[in-house]
Amino acid sequence: MSLAPRLDLRQSQSLVMTPQLQQAIKLLTLSNLEIEGFIAEEVERNPLLEATQTDEVVKPERPEREEPAAADELVTGTAAADPLDIDYATESHQQDSVADGGGGFDGAITGSGGAAPEDGPDLDSFADTSLSLADHLLAQAGPAVAAADLFIAQHLIDQIDDAGYLTGSTLDIASRLGVAQMRVEAVLATIQTFDPTGVGARDLAECLTLQAKEADRYDPCMAKLIANLDLLARGDVARLRRLCNVDDEDMADMIRELRGYDPKPGCRYGGEASRAVVPDVFVRSVGQSWAIEVNGATLPRVLVNRRYHAQLAHGPQDKASKAWLSDCLASATWLVKALDQRQRTIVRVATEIVKQQEGFFRHGVSQLKPMTLRQIADAIEMHESTVSRVTSNKYLSCARGMFELKYFFTSAIQATDGGDAVSAQAVKSAIRALIAGEGAAILSDDTLVEQLQARGFDIARRTVAKYREALGIGSSVQRRRARTLGGG
User: Fold this and answer.
1) To the nearest 10°, the Cα dihedral for 175, 176, 182, 183?
2) What residues does 423 pair with on adjacent strands?
3) Between β-strands 301-304 and 412-413, what pairing exists: parallel, antiparallel or unpaired?
4) Residues paired with 397 in a beta bridge
5) Maximum CA pair distance of the chain?
6) 474 phi-psi bin (left φ>0, alpha ψ -120 to 50, beta other)
7) What percentage of the chain has pLDDT greater than the value 90?
């Protein structure tokens, strides 16, 4: 065997993720609102790109049909398309538009109907104009706190969290400010008189005490009750009665009073406004079929400005300028194609989801079937990872509400009669309905198993407990204790 160096030629094949393919995969994962931000950055970077906002629901390109769609065809006239790993160089494509356009839902988007104001909706009316908790407290501190102590009040207010509780100790604050602790305590006592009642408390007991004093309900019995909140949490009402030296009626009245207090008074003010969920796909019934449309209201229409490209190409330019202009054109053309292909891919996946889960869309969650990503991937001849990316951060709006696309993928629960399996979501819905209607007789997990098996669900007790906890429902002991404390 020779150990001398030599040169060999070998041929091999390997899968290479090109930058464009990586970008296309990234676009699949983004929601429409995130895509809007991405397009804005590309338009600012590339002078050959133009983005125009549309107020209609954009329908993907679809072929003409000579015959009406059959009743069992779930989507009317959707176009089949290749997955994102196609060769764009060999694809015949209209490069100047994302889609051919089309009508949307009647009145679904504000601005498309006659009822909207001429200048569009008043977006300022939806703005959150409420003060933050800190601003609300500082406004009250001005006239209530002496000028010499105002800096202490400001520091204390900075240490109050969103729930209204003081996060730091008065000793640490006094050391940090170089003042006596009694002075800090005095300013804190003033802040604790501010609105909302209970703000500035150092723990839950102090917060409830402040609210009880404000309501003139802080007597020795209430003080004993607040001092023993751990017993109340455990439901040890008998011991609480002995400690407070009251009868059953007074104890129930005190607990009812305590339940009316706010354990997080600061949450009424400020905080970041909740962001509305915008659907990426609309689904509506059309006779016995379904129409599926991509929401184009949040997705700008991207165009390639070929006239501007022609002007630049015929002007004086050096080799570097020609290369830069060629790169801009290639990048703009690719982005338009990628966005169009993204819409087509989303529609294909949503179409198959509606087809597989037609029972849910017609009859509700009880008819939701178990489904996996592989089922959808095999049906539309795409890779499972592509389906996973399409269903991430995407929402579907239908007559039954708005659902994340991931919602329709659930595990299977076998039926007791050997029939078709049911989805875990359907079982959770049944558990919630059984517990909601349990009445005076609290249902244990064993009883729930029996009733679910009577309905055809072959399910174990530990699975019932897991689903019940996922729904945020306590055990039978906890529900019975809560009913006792609530006087129900």
Assistant:
1) 150
2) 412
3) unpaired
4) 282, 402
5) 101
6) beta
7) 14
State the pairing for strand pair 422-423/412-413: antiparallel
CA distance 176 to 155: 10
For the stretch 170-221, pLDDT in tens is 888 888 888 999 999 999 999 999 988 999 999 999 999 999 998 888 888 8
- Are 480 and 439 in contact, with CB atoms under 8 Å apart? no
Question: Residues with Cβ < 8 Å from 277, sequence gap 6 or more?
Answer: 395, 402
CA–CA gap between residue 109 and residue 32 (Å, rounded): 15
146 DSSP assignment = -
Rounded Cα distance between 206 and 198, Å, is: 8
Question: Is the pLDDT at 117 greater than 60, yes or no?
Answer: no
Task: Using CB atoms within 10 Å of the CB of residue 316, give its burial: 0 to 12 exposed, 13 to 18 middle, 19+ buried.
Answer: exposed
Mean pLDDT, the chain, rounded, equals 78
Mention every residue, 6+ apart, whose C-beta is less than 8 A from residue 114: none
Distance between alpha carbon 228 and the CA centroid of its chain, in Å?
Answer: 38
Strands 281-286 and 395-398: parallel
- Burial of 338 by CB count in 10 Å (0-12 exposed, 13-18 middle, 19+ buried)? buried
pLDDT value for 443 = 87
**Following CA atoms 368, 448, 463, 236 in sequence, which dihedral angle do they give, to the nearest 10 degrees?**
130
**Burial class, 120, CB count within 10 angstroms (exposed 0-12 / middle 13-18 / buried 19+):** exposed
| Higher-pLDDT residue of 480, 144 | 144
Rounded to whole angstroms, the Cα distance separating 458 from 461 reads 10
Please provide the distance, in angstroms rounded to a whole number, between the alpha carbons at the two ends of the chain: 90
Residues 334-357: tens digit of each pLDDT: 888 988 888 899 999 999 999 988
